[in-house]
Amino acid sequence: MSTGTTSPIDSATSTIGNGIDYVRTKLEVFEGDRLGQIGLATLFVFLVIGIFARPTTIEFLNLTIPGIAPHDPGERAVGGRLESPSAAHPLGTTDMGRDVLSQVIAGTRVTLLVGSLAAFMAVFIGTNVGLVSAYFGGWVDDVLMRITDIVYGVPFLPFAIVLVAILGNSLVNIIVAIVLILWRSTARVIRSQVLSHKQRPYVESAQAIGAGHLRIMYRHILPNVLPLTFLYAAFAVGWAVIAEASLSFLGFGDPNMLSWGEMIYNVYTANAIREAWWWVFPPGICIMLFVMSVFFIGRTLEEVVNPELRHQE
Amino acid sequence: MTLLDITNLKTYYRAEDGWVRATDDVSLSIERGETVGLVGESGSGKTTLAKSIIRLLPDNAEIVDGSVAFDGTEITELTDSELRKQLRWSEISMIPQNAMNGFDPVYTVGQQIVQVIRYHEDGTSKAEARERARSLFDELGIEPDRVDDYPHQFSGGMAQRAMIALALALSPSLVLADEPTTALDVVIQDRILETIKKMQKELNSAMIMITHDMSVVSETCDRIAVVYGGRIIEIADAETIITNPRHPYTLGLRNAFPDINDDDQELISIPGTPPELVDPGEGCRFAPRCPFAEEACWEVTPEPESYGDGHEVECHRADEVELLQTEAGKKETWLEQEIGRPDDPTADRATAEVESDD
Question: Which residues cross the membrane (chain A) (predicted)?
């Protein structure tokens, strides 16, 4: 990269500069896209809340950043039983006298964790399966697609419930259950897209140029199907969050990690759904907002990887 | 000096009802710096022939027999990775039919040229490769700054030039141009052809120009090979093919193009369609459409016959050249009902379309 006259430091700074420019040009698509901006802003707020939900100590700086949550979400009787919203407890309290606002804030962490991890892993697996399957075709395609078919035949909830019952209800197991089901749709869609792309002239050009299989798959075809991958990643984040909420609502959540779904489960088991609206709505609305924000972002991201869309103005 | 030597090449496609003989027993040799045109209808096998040279064939195609020697290397025996690293693009490059789709839409044209250069020439820096891409653009008449544009931002003619830039980036010894100007209008066509010729002269590259346009080959090629039914039925220097062809099919092809000096000339087309290449059997493949077909044409496959100066013709009646040339100029000769095997009611008029390889 560096020519004779530039020092390593120069080239390093220029690399960093180029990197920043690159990110900036990629983010330009959010300009003038209201929904994308709203999605990005919402996600950012959730991110900040999730990261700083509880007091964090950075040891080598000897610094403790106070948490956003006013109370410990698990602490009982910080207020009265089932108190409606007041200045002291803006979102009221639960049947055990816990602060609902603190619980919602603490629940953001679980959502972010499940959403990002499960979606990333599912889309990663799905994209690779789809790519390999379509690109090589033949028996590779047959084997991978029959596996996908089998996974399509597995209903999510019973599968997840059995898995969690056997392996124990920890957050990791919930994520595993979600990933094992979620990759299938990405695999199918990416496969069909790659099938079309591998017949296109640019792939033949790449072959003529002397590119090998890996290079054609990952440097030529993959960037062309990335918009779909992003879209499915966004879907997957939303879907994973909903799946986690459903599992928790059914009582298979991680008892040590309070999530929004688990909050609704708690309302339900406390028989308080009809009276304690302040306890049901916040987690419900949060789930909705979060899923919505990732969908908005996914929609905008389509343009990043598709230069043709970007220049159509 | 012979650069490429194809001998008795047979490339077949597996189809449900047998082998499609898209290239059947073709021999052709090309000198360094020479331009050879492959002319023929769609489905005649000219693209298959060219793609066999760099083994860029679909999965159901197979080089069944024959040899392709490039500069002494037997291409049919190379492993995939040897072929990739040693020959593809660095020695043999390709200008595809539709340049717009030949580029990967997600990279800028410059990035793609840089990638190609750096992939084949280890140790070339990005900046150097970029500089070369810019100077190539300049030579081909494109604004050098446009290397940073995406393919869809180019017009058809410009994309074709950029494709030529990509094809010539590594100064290959052989360029396969697959109908490089078919998608362009006539004015641009002419300029592109000129550019190709100029660059080719500079680099002393040989070229195989695939086209169905007689005017294109007559302008650019040193030699012309007429392809019909998977075989080269006539080959000679461009001058001879245009003015003194011997094969009825070449005569017919020539008829199908207008002569600007002759107002009264009626275009005469060859009736029928290219033959189906699944098990064509014995006999001349053009016989079903040939107004001059005799008994022997239906029974015996003609062998290439030499008429001096590298002029080779596969036709039983090529000796009666005067008769053929006079008769072929008349419209009555090519009327459909006059053609076909008269005494054989079961004659296969070969109407089925061949699987197109374009």
Answer: 35-53, 110-136, 156-183, 225-250, 276-297
- The distance of A194 to chain B (nearest Cα, Å) reads 14
Put simply, the answer to whether A208 touches B54 (Cβ < 8 Å) is yes
Query: Is B103 at the interface with chain A, CB within 8 A?
Result: yes
Residue B312 lies in a domain: yes
Identify how many contiguous H helices and E strands chain A contains and give both numbers: 12, 2
Instruction: Tell me whether residue B211 is in a domain.
Output: no
Residues of chain B found within 8 Å of residue A209, distances taken between Cβ atoms:
88-89, 93, 116, 119
Q: Which CATH class is domain A15-50+99-312?
A: mainly alpha
B102 vs A contacts (CB less than 8 Å)? 201-202, 204-205
Q: Which of A1, A204, A219 sits opposite B56 (nearest CB)?
A: A204
Integer Cα distance of B161 and B141 in angstroms: 8
Query: Does the residue B300 lie in any domain?
Result: yes
Q: Is B122 on the interface with A (CB under 8 A)?
A: no
A121-135, B228-242, B249-263: which range is least confident on average? B249-263
Does residue A308 carry a pLDDT above 70? no
The encoded tokens of residue B342 equal 């008269």
Domain boundary among B130, B147, B171: B171
- Count of domains in chain B? 2
Structural domain harbouring B307: 244-336
Selected for mutation to probe chain B from A22, A197, A198, A205 (highest B CB count within 10 Å) is A205
Q: What pLDDT is recorded for position A109?
A: 86
The answer to whether ipTM exceeds 0.90 is no
CA dist B184 and B179 (Å) reads 10
Measure in Å the smallest separation between the Cα of B130 and chain A Cα atoms. Answer: 12
CB contacts, 8 Å: B208 with chain A? none
Nearest-Cα residue of chain A relative to residue B97 = A201
Residue B350's pLDDT is: 45
Domain end among B171, B193, B223: B171
Pairing of the two strands A56-58 and A63-65:
antiparallel
Q: Is residue B326 part of a domain?
A: yes
Which residues from B are below 8 Å from A202, CB to CB?
101-105
Tell me if A223 and B106 make a contact (CB, 8 A cut-off).
yes
Which among B93, B105, B125 has the least Cβ separation from residue A307?
B105
> With contact defined as beta carbons under 8 Å apart, do B57 and B45 qualify?
no
Structure tokens at B197: 């010729």
Q: Which residue of B has its CA nearest to A137?
A: B59
pLDDT tens, residue by residue, B21-44: 888 889 999 999 899 999 988 888
Enter the tokens of residue B321.
């050249």
